[in-house]
Amino acid sequence: MSCMKKGVLLFVICINCICLQAQSVEDVQKIFPDDHAVILNNNRNLKLYFKDKVPVAETMEQTHILVLNDKANGIYNKYKVFHGSFDELRSLEAYTNVPEGNKYKKLKVTEIKTQNATSRGVFYDDSKESVFDFPSLFKGAIATEMHTEFHKDPHLLSPFYFTSYMPVVQSKFTVSFPSDMQVKYIIKNNINNAIQVTEKKSGRQTVYEFTATNQKSRQRYGDGPSAPYYEPHVIIHLASYKNDHNEQVGYLGNVDDLYKWNQGFLNEINTQASPLLKHLADSLTTGLSTDKQKTKQVYNWVQNNIKYIAFEDGLEGFVPRQAADVCTKRYGDCKDMASLITALLKLAGLNAYFTWIGTRDIPYDYTEVPLPITDNHMISTMSLDRNNLTIIDTGRRKVAVSNDFKFETKNYTQLMVPAGYEVSYMPANYHYKNAFFDYDVKYLQTSGHVTAVQEFKSNVMLLEPKDFNQWNETVKELNIQQKNQVVLKRK
Questions:
Q1: Which of 4, 204, 234, 374 is within CB 3.0–4.6 Å of 364 for a Cys-Cys bond?
Q2: For the chain (length 491 residues), average pLDDT per consecutive 10?
Q3: CA-closest candidate to residue 69, choices 33, 36, 27
Q4: Which among 479, 467, 397, 386 has a CA at the least distance from the CA of 434?
Q5: Cβ-Cβ contacts under 8 Å for 41 (sequence gap 6 or more)
Q6: How do 54-67 and 142-151 pair as beta strands?
Q7: Single pTM value for the model
Q8: How many of the other CB atoms lie within 10 Å of CB of 270?
Q9: How far apart are CA 408 and CA 411, in angstroms?
């Protein structure tokens, strides 16, 4: 306990030193002239160690926001710290240092509200957010937030991002661990080597330090991909450690370690016979001759009868519910639907498996990032034959454009030619094709009508910034075609 108190004391002293040595408003404005505020320092210290012979971790994080002009007040006051059952918030302090002549007046945040954090598509989980407002964010003020968290399970460590919703002058991520642990890191989106890495050893401790300076505020768009696709960040994972018998224990060093961890959540799932499920499986598949027909019938029944509701409290975010319970309650999340589909297929005599996958919100793959952050979705996989697997599943801008799907459209536009008029000009048919899309328009003239048939086919799901210029030129060309007109004249 005394060591922890010393760590916190050193942490606070360092914060005070940073504030005293902060760059002037004028210096920072030269670098970021169009911004109202910047994150002057964002430092996270992650420490891995053993507690009761089990790996655990804790972080101490500190953030300092320098206000560049009075417009920041009302924009950047609200601040949130996220935590949950696996990341226990141990302490939180926030205040604003307001300049008064050559000194600063410290205004403490007196009200911090902790509430459930909402997630898109999730009815309930154990994520929390501690929310507060920084007071008096006027020019020259420095807002400070510092908190500590205890991480009960280092399988679930979060990446560290070097960018934020405002510019970041300096960010530093420090990771320390004993010699009995093997810790690896993966650096993503390190454009122009903005992230610098140093490694130090001191006795039995190893320290990794990742730093970056003068990072512009991140740009996010509703039709853009998720942040991990393009924002610079570092992923830390404990690969292995030595136990008391000096044996090397795999933790998250490769895909096999991840599989063993995930498999541990399934050991007690659907182990008991269920007459309810057996009757349902038989009723769904009786009279069907092929495995594919049976699979389709089970899948469709679950889709039509089980309502998607995500309720993920603690380990419920990883452990599927029993298939019989899901069938009885008629609701569940992706894991619960996978549990029911898998159980029904097995009862129908088919070989089905639980399968973790990552949606397109996640840019990682298991070969590079064999970690829980690489998947966010569970499905059921069924082997139909020896060679095939069928997946069953319910100008300023520098960020790629993400489409939800490729698509085709076909539109008909019909012009009625009024009595006493005739067509004097009709545009020529037009066809255009490139890597992005196909466009085709045909003009058909029949008695009393002119019909334009337009077909559009999208060929891309992710439009990269390097292709923006070519895309824009293509759109300009198509816009010209869209403006073509049919001309009528009196007879």
A1: 374
A2: 40 42 82 96 97 96 97 95 93 96 94 84 70 96 97 96 96 97 97 95 94 92 87 97 94 96 94 94 94 92 91 78 96 94 95 91 92 93 60 58 78 88 90 86 90 87 81 78 84 84
A3: 36
A4: 467
A5: 18, 62, 63, 64, 169, 170, 171, 172
A6: antiparallel
A7: 0.78
A8: 20
A9: 10
